Amino acid sequence: MRPQPRRRATAFRRAALVSWLLVTAGCSSGHATTTQPAAVTPRPAAVAPLAQPRTGAAPASTPAPQPQPTPQSFTIAATGDLLIHMPVANRAKIDGQASGKSYDFSPMLARVRGQLSRADLAVCHVETPLSADDTHISGYPVFNTPHELVDAIKATGWESCSTASNHSIDHGETGVRATLDWLDKVGVAHAGTARSAQEAQRVEMHTVNGVRVGLLAYTYGTNGVPVPAAKPWLVNVVNVPKILADAHAARKAGAQFVAVSMHWGQENQTAPTALQRSQAAALLASPDVDLIIGDHVHVVQPIERIGSKYVIYGLGNFLSNQTAACCPAKSQDGIIATATLTAAAGGRWNTTIRYTPTWVEVGPYVVHPVAADLNDPATPAALRSALQVSWSRTVAAVTSLPGHAHDATPDLMPR
Ligand SMILES: [Zn+2]
Hints:
Layout: H1 9-23, E1 73-82, H2 86-99, H3 106-109, H4 113-118, E2 121-126, H5 149-156, E3 160-162, H6 172-186, E4 189-191, H7 197-201, E5 204-208, E6 211-219, H8 240-252, E7 257-263, H9 274-284, E8 291-295, E9 303-306, E10 309-312, E11 317-319, E12 333-343, E13 349-361, E14 366-369, H10 370-374, H11 381-398, E15 408-410
Parallel strand pairs: 1-2, 1-11, 2-3, 3-4, 6-7, 7-8, 8-10, 13-15
Antiparallel strand pairs: 1-12, 5-6, 9-10, 12-13, 13-14
């Protein structure tokens, strides 16, 4: 298979990561710590200069003319559910035999690696709890996922993952703890679940091209498994006033941009529910929330501009075993949604959203970037026709809200 190109933007991302590591040095979780002072960082200046990557070039002997300041800008790429059913785990075991690992999920994600690596900040959704030691691996309905998934997450280019889902506490505190421990081990940050009350209070913060970005994550519920009354901090459950309070706290802790991940909606349904729409409107009405990233329903949902901000209602499945055999055929579809944020007056952000339709090929469980693979002459005919059907479905879903057909555009068109 063709390797995906890695572009110069990686240098920006690396520089951002370095500064983020410096900021969070000594904190194994990768989170901004509670030691940071509250309410000291003002909202950004309207046109603060873009952080420049180190080039190693010697300074010019004569001063160059002063360039116009570039507006501060960054990208966030978000993807949907990593839903590791048993056939997916079994395939990762087979792929692991080739690479000498117990399980290897990275071949499944190799074709989207370039796309995700190009984003300044890439955010995934870990729907299922990871096993501490890979014993008793299981799929639906009570998931226990091989922890090697984190190696693939890291290798594919995600820096952070939301972990709040209806499966977060399938294995109670043990599963929450193992999931976060493994993400910490590979240096991927996380939001939405916690190992202690103190951790739940922390704001997951990233410095991206010099911008402090806070990520928050919530789930509508936990499949009827009660969150232990003594440990309500294990998983963030959707509660709009609480989310708004958390977003405000993130601002006070220095966030200049706040994205909220929502695990919500009606499974297998493209249209957002009335509840999704009202919650989106309530969250985006707050000056403390800049972007909503949705997942859970296993199918792609629309992207809607509300005022000057966006809600991505549902990113679809990114990796799963769901097909027409159990579910709607469109549960093989997903998107990588990439938001480009550019600083505007008053600490606001101008946002544009582009998306990359993806499709899971059952068997190898390869996640295909649909347009890129349609444009590849080496793509076999049978795969090509499946990708064409998926493309049409996904574009129709993203643009399906009346009056919002042009709120997001594909980043690459099939030729
Ligand atoms: Zn879910």
